[in-house]
Design a protein that fits this description.
With 122 residues, the chain is mainly beta. Helix content is 3%, strand content 48%. It is built from 1 helix and 11 strands, in the order βββββββββαββ. The strands form 2 sheets. Strands 2, 4, 5, 6, 9, 10 and 11 form a 7-stranded mixed beta sheet that branches.
Length: 122
């Protein structure tokens, strides 16, 4: 029911910037809680940033001060602005939508995008 499409990944030098976008379907995007995850080869997937339907955000310690998550409810889109990129930021970045607030179910309901590759190297 909910489709997520990420874009904006690519190759960038250390210290550079990228802006990732995640476009979501659905009439109730403003109620979704949205998250960005990342996963590097051979490593566990980790939560990078999250933003609630009320606009509150939080970040992994490794990206605080460098990354900013935001949302535009009129366009059904969540963004991840990434500045001062480091080689260790290299990973596939995936968008996650938690639609539990609108399901009325007794368990979490989430959807994933296919991911976009970010590579940081000189």
């Amino acid at each position: 029911q909910v489709q997520l499409v990420e874009s904006g990944g690519g190759l960038v030098q250390p210290g550079g910037s990228l802006r990732l976008s995640c476009a979501a379907s659905g009439r109730f995007f403003g109620i979704y809680n949205m998250r960005w995850y990342r996963q590097a080869p051979g490593k566990q997937r980790e939560l990078v940033a999250a933003i609630t339907n009320a606009g509150s955000s939080n970040y992994a310690d490794s990206v605080k001060g460098r990354f900013t998550i935001s949302r535009d409810n009129a366009e059904n889109t969540v963004y991840l602005q990434m500045n001062s990129l480091k080689p260790e930021d290299t990973a596939v970045y995936s968008c996650n939508a938690d639609i539990t607030p609108i399901t009325g179910l007794g368990y979490p309901v989430t959807y994933w995008g296919q991911g976009t590759q970010v590579a940081v190297s000189a």
